[in-house]
Amino acid sequence: MSASSRPLENPQQPRTTGVHRAPVHAHPTARWVRCLQPRPDATLRLILLPHAGGGSGFFRMWPALLPDSIEPWAVQYPGRERRAAEPLPARLVDVVADATAELHPLLDRPTGFFGHSMGATIAYEIVHRLATEHPTAFRQVAHLFVSARQAPHHPRRGMIHTLPDDEFAEVLRRHGGTQDAVLDDPEMWELFQPILRNDYRMAETHRPTPTTPPLPVDITALTGDDDPSVHSPAAARWSDAGDGEFTHRRWPGGHFYLVPYAAEVAATVARLLRDSAERGASAAT
């Protein structure tokens, strides 16, 4: 993608606060997943997984950006949004196990997983768990999209979660995904800082599942050209994690490149998911 591509008019939306008031449709019994817009006639599903400190509302614009053939769902983490009263998760592996338990019955049609930053790690681990524990459901996994994340066998051992508050806030400001209102308001910071710090701790201390043997699934890595936390070679090594088609898509911007380019990112995801599903259907006949 060239740097001349035009972003959406308002590059500041959506930003992370952990709480989003835009109405979305929720599955009546779901805790870990919510349907952002029910589409009974959709032939495909897309599961969206937010970043550290993020919630399912981060993807509230996506239903309008995806074709009607794709039903969008989002994973909602404990300790925020409608799960604000629940304790924060202790380990990323627990998030993966609990989310997988609720997700696997949904895989009754070709499904893609799109995870951003920490969400990419969770998406990868969920797909791995589906492959080993729910093989019937795994056969419906058509594509894994990993955004703004280095490959699991190319880990970055960070200690951001241990930084003092002022340094921690500065890292978040540089990444660009947290509203200034949260970082600059003491009451807001007191509310959201534990969520952000806990998510960073989980991500930074997680030991990823090995990429051997590779997953039999198509994988696309998506990155921003100016993201200091994910360099292109580290993202390109996602090709080792799967033995299906691999694609690396790059956009102008930093860690949250997908905010101003939401329409283009969603269109790319929709096209690649459809292509993977069609290849899978052809291989099955």
UniProtKB/TrEMBL annotation:
Gene Ontology biological process terms, A to Z: lipid biosynthetic process
Compositional bias segments (type: Polar residues): 1-16
Family membership: Belongs to the thioesterase family.
Region (Disordered): 1-25
SUPFAM superfamilies in the cross-refs: alpha/beta-Hydrolases
InterPro entries: AB_hydrolase_fold (IPR029058), TEII (IPR012223), Thioesterase (IPR001031)
UniProt-recorded name of the protein: Thioesterase
Segments forming domain Thioesterase: 45-268
Superkingdom classification of source: Bacteria
